[in-house]
Specification:
Blueprint lengths: L11 E5 L3 H12 L3 E5 L67 H15 L5 E2 L2 E10 L8 E8 L12 E5 L1 E4 L6 E2 L13 E4 L13 E5 L3 H10 L5 E5 L7 H9 L3 E4 L2 E4 L4 E4 L4 E3 L2 E4 L3 E2 L5 E2 L5 E3 L2 E3 L14 E3 L8 H17 L7 H17 L13 H8 L9 H16 L10 H11 L2 H4 L16
Helix pairs in contact: 1-5, 8-9
Cofactor: FAD
Function: Catalyzes the conversion of methylthioalkyl glucosinolates of any chain length into methylsulfinylalkyl glucosinolates.
InterPro entries: FAD/NAD-bd_sf, Flavin_mOase, Flavin_mOase-like, FMO-like
Length: 474
């Protein structure tokens, strides 16, 4: 809703994290007239997309509350989404000569895109690098929606090892935006014998290259896309790879992969781990493994945030959050960007950023507290009624929801070509798991031409390099 209060209020705002969501929040806050400081624990922007090849100092199962390594990218990772659909609304993800020109480029190309975004909009001056946020808490808790300020305590990171002698800096802000992402803190299963299993156990958070697994017998736990992708890569060097899945009902694409890689086997869930290295599966079969690699996803974690119990993480449900963004009792002075999953991320983050910036300036207002709480309750009930696990609360997978969200600030709806390219990729992935990034049909060719001629790609006056047609590709 639009505020009827005259004048625009400028706030001093702390944004935690300089990944894609934090960067677009910083831009929108400044555009709205706010004073912005972005605190980033790494030496550069990018968040997850800032690849860190050295993860040796990390706990192999990611059990530390404050992780030393933020990025979970592995060296060979390529995009799951085509680049055309990823760009912010006013900054297309263009193909540039002398860079990775593929439709589904590697992770470094996304980092370069974000660096281009930062330079184009002059955001680097807002960011303090090598700063780890240790504590965020309320200065005083006044009347709902008013007089609420935040103390932020942070340290400069000299090395990746903790240094208790480093001086803590304490600052007070009118508002805090948490933009720390959701692909850093490992989500681990509970398996009988995990604590006493003597051989190597890792979470995919620290997986980088397949070479350490050469000639090994590896059990990969988790049949999500990352589990499949990493299994295919490790199968190129390992003696055997056993992919443990909750369901043995697999896609056509995975079936093709299993037929091709004769040392890659599909297994059911693990029943228990034995001290001699045996992995027992629920169907009674077993293997003696050298390594177990857990591709079991990630949990939301905010170890620095103290809201006196107002915002909690319960089995990966961050709440209560109105529209996955605002805790009703603390909004708009505290907000979260980048919580939703299974969306076209960059445009959605942008709509979140605009809403936050305009709420803080007073240009718009949130509904009353009781209405927001009822909305959250209704949403939780709908999740339960659909039979979805609590940890899938923030999995959106719904274009219509994204568009309704954008309507709060008149953010443009996703273009039809963007939606259709997204759906086309998912269908291709299901059938052609190993090749979908480099082979597509004539329907995509037509959608690409429509995309390149759309205002999204022509708005900057840039020349868009078109891709070779399928028949011309090697």
């Amino acid at each position: 809703m639009v505020s009827d209060k005259p004048g625009i209020r400028s706030k001093h705002v702390c944004v935690i994290g300089a990944g894609p969501s934090g960067l677009v929040v910083a831009r929108e806050l400044r555009k709205e007239g706010h004073s912005v400081v972005v605190l980033e624990q790494n030496h550069d922007i990018g968040g997850q997309w800032l690849y860190e090849p050295d993860a040796e100092g990390e706990d192999p199962l990611g059990r530390d509350p404050f992780l030393k390594v933020h990025s979970s990218m592995y060296e060979s990772l390529r995009l799951l989404s085509a680049r055309e659909i990823m760009g912010f609304s006013d900054f297309p993800f263009l193909v540039k000569r002398d860079r990775d020109m593929r439709r589904f480029p590697g992770h470094r190309e996304v980092l370069l895109y974000l660096q281009d975004f930062v330079e184009w909009f002059g955001l680097r001056e807002l960011i303090r690098f090598n700063i780890r946020v240790e504590h965020v808490g309320m200065v005083d808790y006044g009347e709902f929606g008013k007089d609420l300020r935040w103390v932020v305590k942070s340290k400069e990171i000299i090395t990746k090892s903790d240094d208790d002698d480093e001086k803590m800096v304490e600052e007070v802000y009118d508002a805090v935006v948490v933009a720390t992402g959701h692909y850093s803190h490992p989500r681990m299963p509970s398996i009988k014998g995990m604590g006493t299993w003597k051989r190597k156990q890792f979470h995919s958070h620290i997986y980088r290259v397949p070479e350490p697994y050469r000639n090994e017998v590896v059990v990969v736990v988790g049949n999500s896309f990352s589990g499949q992708d990493i299994s295919m890569e490790i199968a190129g060097v390992a003696r055997e790879v056993h992919l443990s899945a909750k369901s043995l009902d697999i896609t056509e694409g995975l079936s093709k992969v299993l037929d091709k890689h004769h040392n890659l086997y599909l297994r059911p869930q693990i029943d228990s781990l034995e001290e001699d290295g045996t992995v027992l599966f629920v169907d009674g079969s077993s293997v003696i493994a050298d390594t177990i690699l857990y591709c079991t996803g990630y949990s939301y974690s905010f170890p620095f945030l103290d809201t006196k119990g107002i915002v909690v993480v319960d089995d990966d449900r961050v709440g209560p959050l109105y529209e996955h963004t605002f805790p009703p009792s603390l909004a708009p002075s505290l907000s979260f960007v980048g919580i939703p999953r299974k969306i076209i991320g960059f445009p959605f983050f942008e709509s979140q950023a605009i809403w936050i910036a305009q709420l803080l300036s007073g240009k718009r207002t949130l509904p009353p507290w009781n209405e927001m709480m009822q909305s959250i309750k209704d949403f939780y009930n709908s999740v339960d009624a659909a039979g979805l696990p609590k940890h899938n609360t923030h999995d959106i997978a719904n274009f219509e929801y994204c568009e309704r969200y954008g309507d709060h600030v008149d953010f443009p709806h996703l273009e039809e070509w963007r939606k259709e390219l997204c759906i086309s990729t998912l269908k291709n992935l299901v059938v052609n798991l190993e090749t979908f990034r480099d082979s597509w049909d004539e329907g995509d060719e037509k959608l690409l031409q429509e995309a390149f001629q759309s205002p999204h790609f022509t708005q900057l006056g840039s020349q868009v390099l078109t891709f070779q047609s399928q028949s011309e590709r090697p």
